[in-house]
Automatic annotation (TrEMBL):
This is Small ribosomal subunit protein uS8. Transmembrane segments: none annotated. Belongs to the universal ribosomal protein uS8 family. The gene is rpsH. HAMAP family: Ribosomal_uS8_B (MF_01302_B). InterPro entries: Ribosomal_uS8 (IPR000630), Ribosomal_uS8_CS (IPR047863), Ribosomal_uS8_sf (IPR035987). One of its GO terms (cellular component) is cytoplasm. Part of the 30S ribosomal subunit. Contacts proteins S5 and S12. One of its GO terms (molecular function) is structural constituent of ribosome. It comes from the Bacteria. GO terms for biological process: translation. Keywords: Ribonucleoprotein, Ribosomal protein, RNA-binding, rRNA-binding.
Length: 133
């Protein structure tokens, strides 16, 4: 399936796999999806991710993280902010705080993909890709 918005596609696949309590999910591998998966791993929302190659097609296999005996998902919600039809940018002073700092906003800056916290530390603004909590 060809998706124009690979970030929305990635977030939807993670959301659906989380709701179905799947151990892993596969998303098409792009530079952007790799960067987002790296941030999610650093922030403790996923266990790990690896790359699977089948001929020309490359996928990222993302291992989801759960807590407790009931296997409650670590990721409660994912929300896409900047879309292809309406880009949302924030300068360093306007960077959003998700649920008062409990969640994270993933920002695309000139120094790469990072959390809102890291962008604030480095004094960078950029495109607000999504919120995760």
């Amino acid at each position: 399936m060809a998706a124009n918005d690979t970030i929305s596609d990635m977030l939807t696949r993670i959301r659906n796999a989380n709701l179905a309590r799947h151990q892993t999910t596969e998303v098409p591998a792009t530079k952007m999806t790799r960067s987002i998966a790296k941030v999610l791993q650093e922030e403790g929302f996923i266990v790990e991710f690896s790359e699977k190659e089948e001929g020309v097609k490359k996928d990222l296999v993302i291992a989801l993280k759960y807590k407790g005996k009931n296997r409650q998902p670590i990721i409660n919600a994912l929300k896409r902010i900047s879309k292809p039809g309406l880009r949302v940018y924030a300068n360093r002073k306007e960077l959003p705080r998700v649920l008062g700092g409990i969640g994270i906003a993933i920002i695309s800056t000139s120094s790469g993909i990072m959390t809102d916290r890291d962008a604030r530390k480095q004094g960078l603004g950029g495109e607000v890709l999504c919120y995760i909590w």
